[in-house]
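Two proteins were folded this term; both appear here.
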Amino acid sequence: MIYVVKIWIDKDNLYAESDSGKVAFYKLSKFKGFKASQDQLKNFKVLGGKDIYWPELDEDINLEGLFYDNGLCPLTDTEDSVIYRPVPESNEYVAEELHC
């Protein structure tokens, strides 16, 4: 299993970084639907932990496919060997109350 901890976009590429430091990228110019503004490209969601989705563009990219295309993982029948699991920011950690 590969866990993606960070996803970002620059003016040319989409990037996804795994918890082990592997970085997959995708040239946005290869995809017809990505003739869009930077603001539209930055407006994405991760659906089901495995698909990057742009609601305004109605386009998506599967994380496993992204890592497969970069030679970083095999392709599975279910396309769910790569999961988005971001590392929480330090201020997101909340101590649980102890009950003794």
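Next, the second protein.
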Amino acid sequence: MSKKGKTFIISGPSGVGKSTVLKALLEQRKNVYFSVSATTRPPRPGELDGVHYHFMDVESFRKWIAMEQFLEYAEYVGNFYGTPKRYVDEAMEQGKDVILDIEVQGAIQVTSKRPETVRIFIAPPSWEELERRLKARGTDSQEKIQKRLLRAKVEFQTAHTYDYFVINDTVENAVRELDAIMTAEHCKPKERMEIINGS
């Protein structure tokens, strides 16, 4: 019997360093599929369909919503974004673990459909450090940084509903903890006993 993959949701505030941590994790764990979102926004220069996003027109996206083809979706600034079920399910059937990098609202949508999904919240070591990282990116005005910090504190209120809580003090530590969580999730008795019983 081939082992089926699991789905892991990674959430955390903007500027916490999720992209850096996930890039390092994916280099370390080979049998992992990083879920690519679908969007109705036009591609930016250098973006490839199926790599950065699955680019769709609004009509197709709405059809997919009606057919319940998304694990979660949302509308931001006039564009739709969503997680297609198909690619997630295909990867899991191939025995790959799937990582969804999604916000708190999306995580609620996914777990209402699939309660077995493992949720991991990534937090900064302190609010001061989060503010420092946001400033260091050099992409946002002071006003926008304050808005992001306010939103981060709202997201933080939901962290206790997650299965795991990882503090990104260093990338190495955060990757080590995420790797340990993913390994531990495959050591549950039910899954291990099925392997032995060959059912």
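The CA atoms of residues 71 and 114 lie 9 Å apart. The mean pLDDT is 93. These notes refer to the second protein only.
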